[in-house]
């Protein structure tokens, strides 16, 4: 039965049928690069083919917020949820942007507050690790910014924090750090050695100026006319109302293959979190029983929030887990949970996505992910 439902469609064909990446581009997409993000064409394909204007589109593991943002751009109501605090900030900024004037005002206030802030207290090990990325002058400003922004959950502050998350590390002219990866926070010891070996210079920045420059660039394209919503819930316990969503497009963690907390340790540090604590709250388990229970509860929630007749698309990758590198087809592994809760399984689309275009672009095939698949689900009308 199941084998008949598994079909192979080149997802690149889906993408090409739609529009090219440059047609879909928007300045906000460069806010912050983050591991395992959707290419823009995937949300556009599903949003435009399976929803109409005014519908509600939801992503339960929204990462940097591409699905809700693309929903808004298509005049749908976009809602994103992610348990990781830095992903929540990035999603929030996408669904509730601010104007350049508001950003300028926010930076004026920040400057005033930063000048009054004392940073001469004992530094933690994480502070010391963070300092490796910056010149002394830049790091002092980063510490002040961190201190004044912690606990400020105003809309302007959240948007400003999102810009900062995208500037903490990278190799552009506005990045605060020495030249390094933009998508993930590199390990401090590795960076230390790398700096020595390559005689890297740590740039001296005026961080507020960098934020303004980046803000102007991000806000260059017109923002959607509609605003969306961002949540910071565990996917097993969503605060969304039952039957409130027309379509779900989402991509959960693939067992324990990704390490979102560690990969974002510097961004989490800036927001005032220790990545080790955040790791405990995220689904990062390679054990089939733990992952299975997490996904069962999360799929129950997806079913609950979806309207009868609504569609749900889940992108997952095949993985190899455990010391014996046991191969698991995650989509097939999840099917019983989808069926038990009441979903009709329409099909699984097996990808032929070229490696550079996958969600998991940073992991090579021999490290784990061989293929990604999309599970097509429908909630029956009578439920
Ligand atoms: C494959 S990524 C999704 C990426 C997203 N599609 C994008 O385009 O950026 C999976 C996400 O699940 C989040 N996550 C992990 N455990 C979670 C949990 N228990 N509840 C909600 N989100 C969680 C991670 O922070 C990560 O952003």
What would the keywords be for this entry?
10 strands, Rossmann fold, binds S-adenosylmethionine, 8-stranded mixed β-sheet, 2 domains, 383 residues, alpha/beta, two-stranded antiparallel sheet, 17 helices, 14% strand, globular
> What is the fold named in CATH at topology level of the largest domain?
Rossmann fold
Name of the CATH class of the largest domain: Alpha Beta
Global morphology: globular
How is the biggest beta sheet arranged?
Answer: 8 strands, mixed
Strand content of the residues, in percent?
Answer: 5-15%
* Radius of gyration from the alpha-carbon trace, in angstroms: 21 Å
- What level of helicity do the residues show? 40-55%
Q: How many beta-strand elements? A: 10
Identify low-pLDDT runs. Answer: 15-19
Q: First CA to last CA: what distance?
A: 24 Å
What is the N-to-C succession of helices and strands?
Answer: HEHHHEHEHHHHHHHEEHHHHEEEHEE
CATH second-level architecture of the largest domain: 3-Layer(aba) Sandwich
Bound molecules: S-adenosylmethionine
Q: Can you count the helices? A: 17
Mean pLDDT across every amino acid position? 89
Structural class: alpha/beta
- Total of domains: 2
